[in-house]
Amino acid sequence: MNGRSIQDIVPPARTKPIRPVSNPPRLPPESHIPMEPRSGLPFTAIATAAVVVVGIVVFIMSTVFHTALIRVQLFERSIDASQTYEAGAEKLIAYAPITVSAEASRTVPATGSVEAKDRASGTIVISNTHSARPQRLITNTRFATDDGKVYRIHAPVTVPGYTTRNGERIPGTAEAMVYADEPGEAYNRESATLKLPGLKGSAQYDTITATTKTPLAGGFLGMRPSVEKSLRDQTVADLTAELDRVLREKLIAALQPESVVIPGSIEFTYTEGPLSAADDKATITVTGSAIAPALTAETLVRTLAASANAPSDIPLVLGNPESLEFAAIDIAGLKEGRSIKFSLSGTAELEAAFDPKAFALDLAGKGRDEAAQVQASYRAITGPVTITVRPFWRSSLPANPERITVETVPPLDR
User: Fold this and answer.
1) Pick from 311, 258, 249, 292: nearest CA to 102
2) What are phi and psi for residue 204, nearest 5 degrees?
3) Would the pLDDT of 126 be above 70?
4) CA 287 to CA 360: how far, in whole Å?
């Protein structure tokens, strides 16, 4: 038996550690920095605001910038108008004579003197409240003032009949030149009311009357300065040219909307008035008148269209009356409004009567399908119609017709 004593127990060796053990360095305590709260709006608020802004922009563009451009092709037809026509009360073409007058004067140097016996003259307006029928006054018809001064017309005049409006008679009127029966200043008048002595004792005496439109002037009896012939002739020529322009302008102004005057149909008359003088100066005066057949446009166009087999259900207008040449064949009855015969030559452009403003008004606020129905009701439109609406996403036309622009485009075969 192996006995072991306390000495037999070997104490454990004191071994060194493999690597030295050291305590880790102490880190400074962490400092907790407080977080600042986020600035600005939450994402949902920003998104909502963006949607609102976009909506406002879209609304503004859809209203303020809501416009439409419409292009239409209208019926047109070019025809040869070269043929003979008749116009009058019982003819296919209706007309009414239209007369205007004017006066022009110029002061020039006077040379020498001459005995003068000049008669006063001026323009009067003749009124007819006697009858709805025209009243014809022949050459040399007398007109008299209250104090017995007599003036005469040197050409026949037809005074239109009266019309009725709201139960009131609107007199028919016509202008005419009158000339004093005697020379002298006693016949000069700034204004006057005249009656027809030949009608005295009849109902017409108070219903066919006249008033002066221009002063009755130029009456003179005695010696006065004269004007050198070449200067006088040149002055008269200049005044006549001036009157030609003025008379044409007055004819256009007097023309009714439903009538048309072919430029070559105008007949002009010029009269040199008596000289008036002061000191060493003389005033030369020229009076002029113009008469033309004012053709009723509808009847003229209808006659032209019939000769070209144009559609009868489309309202037409003559687009180029100034391009047609007028030649009188028999217009002796023009002043009295009787039948006349004339010829035209040239190409007449017949165009569909079309009111773009009325078309825009009919289309205002309509969708494209409704717009097509409106278009179909306009017989004047014979070609394709293009509609461009802005902004592009709007499906209807603006409710305000002023935001709709209507343009006409020529046919493709022109």
Assistant:
1) 249
2) -70, -20
3) yes
4) 48
Looking at the chain, the whole-number percentage of residues with pLDDT higher than 70 is 84
User: Could you tell me where the beta strands, DSSP code E, fall in 167-301?
Assistant: 168-170, 172-183, 193-195, 208-212, 220-226, 259-260, 267-272, 276-278, 281-296
Domains of the chain: 62-76+352-409 (no CATH), 115-226 (2.40.30)
**If you average pLDDT over residues 253-277, what whole number do you get?**
86
By the 8 A CB rule, do 156 and 139 touch?
Answer: yes
Q: What is the rounded CA–CA span in Å between residue 372 and residue 362?
A: 11
* φ, ψ dihedrals at 389, nearest 5°: -110, 135
What is the rounded distance in angstroms from the CA atom of residue 155 to the CA atom of residue 287?
Answer: 14
Contacts with 22 (C-beta within 8 Å, 6 or more apart), sequence order: none
- CA distance readout (Å), 158 to 127, 389, 407: 11, 56, 44
Q: What is the pLDDT of residue 389?
A: 92
DSSP tag of 15: P
User: How far apart, in whole angstroms, are the C-alpha atoms of residue 121 and residue 214?
Assistant: 9
- 204 has a pLDDT exceeding 60: yes
For 5-109, list the strands marked E by DSSP.
67-73, 76-80, 83-87, 95-109
Instruction: Go through the chain and tell me how many residues it has.
Output: 414
Residue 271 predicted with pLDDT over 80 = yes
Q: CA–CA distance from 285 to each of 35, 59, 121, 214 (Å)?
A: 105, 69, 11, 13
What is the model's pLDDT at position 6?
A: 45
Cα(305)–Cα(338) distance, integer angstroms: 24
* Backbone Cα Rg of the chain: 47
